[in-house]
Automatic annotation (TrEMBL):
InterPro entries: AAA+_ATPase (IPR003593), ABC_transporter-like_ATP-bd (IPR003439), ABC_transporter-like_CS (IPR017871), ABC_transpr_LolD-like (IPR015854), MacB-like_ATP-bd (IPR017911), P-loop_NTPase (IPR027417). SUPFAM superfamilies: P-loop containing nucleoside triphosphate hydrolases. This is ABC transporter ATP-binding protein. GO terms for molecular function: ATP binding; ATP hydrolysis activity; transmembrane transporter activity. Keywords: ATP-binding, Nucleotide-binding, Transport.
């Protein structure tokens, strides 16, 4: 589903060049749950941002469902992203002025889905996440774990093929972190492909494959056995 080859990203500012990714090749099949690990500054966020079509590489190819992402027009790329990719961030990135229900509804508003369908989907998804009783609350009234559950609800409401998660438990305590990881596992078991950046080996143990980066290069790929 996702195929990148010889992907490089070089940040240039004044006289300084930073090679964030160097000739990275990676294939991710539908239904996989992949962790991307490696020390700070090794290029994890850069890779995730490129996979999410939020950033462009300096060199290399990226195909998503057999479409060459960076040969598409900007508008086509945005449409491909909105249809297929959900994001979960370390800092939740909820909109404080909107209620839980309104936050979760947003991707469907962007996709111009009819209001009746939107309300129905929001109710279903909040029910599934155990957050229905908080629908009319604002993010600031929720715990970190609850906010991340809302963020996951928002990421999955439009039924994306892929969820990209950047340190999804980074701001959570162990108990709430584990809840979020269990939620992601469950979504993966229902067929959603997940790519997650993490520092935590514990979180990575929920995934099925660990890709390790070092200085912008892939240094190992290990499949995990689950019994
Ligand atoms: P990680 O997520 O693994 O911590 P990043 O992808 O954020 O790594 O960064 C990889 C390298 O690229 C680092 O050296 C970082 O300082 C650099 N970098 C990231 N974003 C930018 C940017 N916008 N401008 C310049 N350098 C950047
Ligand atoms: P994390 O390690 O939690 O992913 P980072 O510090 O790597 O966070 O990066 C946070 C954001 O800042 C990223 O979007 C990244 O692109 C940007 N960034 C990282 N390093 C630099 C840099 N040297 N110059 C400009 N932007 C950067």
């Amino acid at each position: 589903m996702i195929e990148i080859s010889n992907l490089s990203k070089i940040y240039r500012s004044k006289a300084v060049e930073t090679v964030a990714l160097h000739k990275v090749s990676l294939t991710i099949e539908r239904g996989e749950f992949v962790s991307i690990m490696g020390p700070s500054g090794c290029g994890k966020s850069t890779l995730l941002n490129i996979l999410g079509m939020l950033d462009t590489p300096t060199n290399g190819h990226y195909s998503f469902d057999d479409k060459l992402v960076f040969d598409l027009k900007e508008s086509e790329r945005v449409a491909l992203r909105k249809m297929n990719i959900g994001f979960v961030f370390q800092s939740f990135n909820l909109i404080d002025e909107l209620t839980v229900a309104e936050n979760v509804e947003l991707p469907l508003v962007y996709l111009k889905r009819p209001k009746v369908e939107r309300k129905k989907r929001v109710a279903e998804i909040l029910e599934r996440m155990g957050m229905m009783h908080r629908a009319q609350h604002f993010p600031g009234e929720l715990s970190g774990g609850q906010q991340q559950r809302v963020a996951v609800a928002r990421a999955v409401i439009a039924d994306p093929k892929v969820i990209l998660a950047d340190e999804p438990t980074g701001n959570l305590d162990t108990v709430h972190g584990n809840e979020v990881m269990e939620l992601l596992s469950e979504l993966n078991e229902r067929g959603t492909t997940i790519v997650m950046v993490t520092h935590s080996s514990h979180d990575a143990s929920y995934s099925k494959r660990i890709v390790r980066l070092l200085d912008g290069e892939v240094v190992s790929e290990n499949k995990l056995m689950h019994v």
